[in-house]
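Troubleshooting log. The previous structure file for this entry was overwritten by mistake, so regenerating from the original sequence record. Sequence copied from the archived sheet and checked twice against the printout by T.R.
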Amino acid sequence: MPADINMFWHGPVLGPIHAACVRSFLRHGHAVTMHCYERPADLPDGVAVFDARKIMPLEDLRPHSASGSIALGSDRYRYRLIAEGFGTYADCDMFCLRPIAETPYIMGAEQANTVNGAILNYPPDSPFCELLREATQDYNYVPPWFSESKQRKMRFFRKFGRKVSVEALGWGIWGPHLITHLVKRLDLWTEVSNIDRFYPLHCQHAVQLKDPELCIADLTTPRTDALHLWHKISGSTAPPGSPLDEIINC
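Regenerated output below.
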């Protein structure tokens, strides 16, 4: 059976690209629940809505200092919804190409040594789940993969009230960096899917989605279940005949 899919959105509208991604899961037989603080006006028919306040207060959706992105809060939320037993989480820029079966672990490599969390599932009673929740409880989290000297400096600042919040740290602290760290720590690499299952298109090549000389099949492999579009493409126009145009008009 296709996995139940949970998504998270903050804002009044999804826009055509994200709406197309939501529809793609419905089209392949997935039950989809949108977790949100307000219902998007263009939410596709057939999607259930869950009040995100029941899992995490809106004030915890703190933005990243440099970009203003809510990725940190989104990371924190997805780990909590999985811990609550909702099942598989998928980002709203994940385009489903075929049904994704419910399995205890769903996660994929985006590079040889990096695991992404744009689509994610794991047992709610697992050490992996507990450690993700624990790490994202504290906005002054000290990443254990940082150098020992940097960790000491952060702890020193913390001791004297000069805390360094994760909002001021690099991109992906609570996302791919944390997930990858825990996959290594808990020896879960056997549960990580190959790059081409979810991330055949590298983020630096996302512009290929706008190339009218390409199609979706050119950016995927026969093993691709879903294609991550990378959020930075979300405000883009879709040139006629491009993979992005194909996605929007599916």
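Helices lie at 16-27, 71-83, 127-135, 148-159, 173-185, 195-198, 243-248. Archived copy saved in two places this time.
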